[in-house]
Amino acid sequence: MSQPVKAARSKSANSSHSSDGGERAGSRRAAAQRLTMRRKLAAAAMELFATQGYEATTVDEIAARAGVARRTFFRHFRSKEEAIFPDHDDTLVRAAAVLDAAPPHENPLDTVCRGIKEVMRMYAASPAVSVERYRLTREVPALREREIASVARYERLFTRYLLGHFDEGAHHDGDDDPLLAEVAASAVVTAHNHVLRRWLRAGGKGEVETHLDHAFAIVRETFGTGIGAGRPAPGRQAATVTAQEEDDVVVMVARTDAPLNEVMRTIERALKR
Q1: Global pTM value
Q2: Please, what sign has the CA dihedral across residues 65, 69, 72, 74?
Q3: Measuring CA to CA, how many Å separate 54 from each of 39, 57, 59, 64, 223?
Q4: pLDDT digits (tens, 9 = 90+) for 37-59
Q5: Is 187 exposed, middle or buried (0-12, 13-18, 19+ CB in 10 A)?
Q6: Which helix or strand (DSSP H or E) is residue 98 part of?
Q7: Does residue 94 sit in helix, strand or coil?
């Protein structure tokens, strides 16, 4: 009697697994179709903005150029200025995924730098489109404001992440961690945008990722020893250093899995005291 029951359970489990896989595949297809339509509408909007001007272009014209109904446009965008930024929602999700999947002992500032590279990759994937969009945002205040709003979303995401890497309950007078987290997040976004603008002004040519890494190195040098850098995962012992001045002796205790750069930063801070 037990064998048929086991078979039934196995069949049920396989069916559930198949159902979950089908749902995930269906969700991915829907997301890809949505992004394809958003890009189609964005291309139509940019063509019309470039040929007849932003103010003279209507949503109905954009929808007609894309070969869809007006209601389809509003299923994807709330306004015509939003239509030339079709990838920001998807890119924000990818940047958040980088943060969520970060190794437990990675410096959080390094994680944020990796996360914002998703934004640069979005622009670099279509240089000609990115350059034209940059030109339009320079000429049309409404588009510029929309771009600024998009940048602010990334900055909020990274600030929340950095703020999450220290214990708010342990704050005391003179604790600058919250300020440092916000300033560091702004610095990462500013460094990215500086490199991006230079690349766009050069017509989308050049080794943009090399310049980006150089800019991030400057940010890390300035902020890399703060914002909870090297904080251990729960239940793990952090690297600690004590110095005995009279004998010039430094004693250090560290996790066996502590990254070398974390150990070196801890030693350096102790020696500077």
Answers
A1: 0.68
A2: positive
A3: 18, 5, 11, 16, 41
A4: 988 998 999 899 989 989 999 99
A5: buried
A6: helix 88-100
A7: helix
